[in-house]
Design goal:
This protein has 342 residues and is mostly helical. The chain has helices at residues 22-61, 73-98, 103-106, 114-144, 161-191, 196-209, 217-234, 237-261, 266-295, 310-318, 321-338. It has one domain.
């Protein structure tokens, strides 16, 4: 007979009722929580389609067409930013309200020493930059095979100041706040009772799948895990937002430079920025690792297991309705993206 992980004998209820098994309840709780979070991440796609249809009807009544907005990039980026805010943020906010979790649980802003915060930002930014190397390699590989290798900001263009402002609003300002709140703040806080490692891994997985790309999946997963780990370590969502903000800012920097100064300046300026970030990132990461080693800091400050073994956690994370539906949607849209349909 398997021992009770809580160290106490199971309580046998009278009249033939099954004994209460806290181990089973914790597994069930993990499965339900992951399933609900996966449905939150999945909901962004149908919500964006529904809101897109509503917007198209409104614009049609006003004499415009949502499906021709590529000719009006300012309005396109503005609507994209608003859709990103609504369709990603709303399901996770509903999850918080429905589960009676306080907003402060997801938006933690514990004090982080200024120097430590700067080092963490550069170290996290370094990891994000390094992740671009395999992403670009996989994109080139897909292109050479006749598939769609478009990633990140490849298709973004600006032709006016309103274009530029709305691009910054959507990609640089809205996206970091919304995505960090949802995938780090809400997901990590909801899963920490099953251990920080579990919370970081599930957060990274949901975040990576939200990009609906086989090419981006492995590298976004690594980046998402690092961001979740930083949130676990610091308890300060602003550190994550700062990294995400700078990463998206530098990703759109070539577009901005090309608009103001011409394409000839883009290459040298971008190389200089990348070199500076890499040097600062390597120095910051080395210093942080050395400090961790000297102080013998535990990698995960909250290794709570709640009576659920690692092998059982894997089953609960994947064998639930939300994750199964999310995986199916991810595979479908990733295939369509790879062949250039989506």
């Amino acid at each position: 007979m398997m021992q009770n992980p809580y160290g106490a004998a199971p309580y046998i209820l009278p009249n033939g009722w099954a004994p209460f098994d806290p181990y089973r309840e914790e597994r069930r709780g993990l499965r339900r929580t992951v399933s609900r979070l996966a449905f939150c991440a999945l909901a962004a796609f149908p919500l964006s389609e529904i809101i897109g249809v509503v917007l198209s009807l409104v614009l049609a009544a006003a004499g415009s067409d949502l499906f021709l907005l590529t000719e009006d990039t300012a309005l396109y980026y503005l609507l994209t930013g608003l859709l990103s805010y609504l369709t990603v943020f709303l399901p996770f906010l509903i999850f918080l309200l429905a589960s009676h979790r306080p907003l402060t649980e997801a938006i933690r802003t514990e004090h982080t020493p200024f120097l430590t915060g700067i080092l963490l930002v550069f170290a996290g930014l370094f990891v994000c930059f390094i992740m671009n190397v395999p992403v670009n390699f996989l994109a080139d590989l897909a292109e050479s095979a006749g598939l769609n290798g478009e990633i990140n900001t490849d298709s973004m263009t600006v032709s006016s100041i309103p274009d530029l402002v709305t691009l910054i609003l959507a990609v640089v300002l809205i996206a970091p706040v919304v995505e960090e709140f949802c995938y780090r703040g809400v997901v990590v806080s909801a899963l920490r009772r099953w251990g920080d490692l579990t919370a970081a891994l599930v957060s990274a997985l949901l975040f990576a799948m939200a990009h609906f790309s086989f090419l981006a999946l492995p590298v976004v997963f690594v980046g998402g895990f690092v961001m979740a780990y930083l949130y676990v370590r610091t308890g300060n969502l602003w550190v994550n937002i700062a990294i995400h903000f700078l990463n998206n800012l530098f990703a759109t920097l070539p577009i901005m430079l090309g608009y103001f100064f011409g394409e000839s300046i883009v290459g040298p300026a971008n190389d200089a920025v990348v070199l500076a970030v890499l040097v600062l990132g390597i120095c910051s990461l080395a210093f942080l690792l050395l400090r961790f080693a000297v102080r013998r800091v535990s990698p995960f400050p909250n290794p709570i297991e709640s009576g659920v073994r690692v092998s059982a956690k894997i089953g609960q994370i994947f064998a639930n309705p939300g994750m199964i539906c999310y995986l199916l949607l991810f595979v479908l849209l990733s295939v369509l993206s790879l062949v250039g349909v989506f």
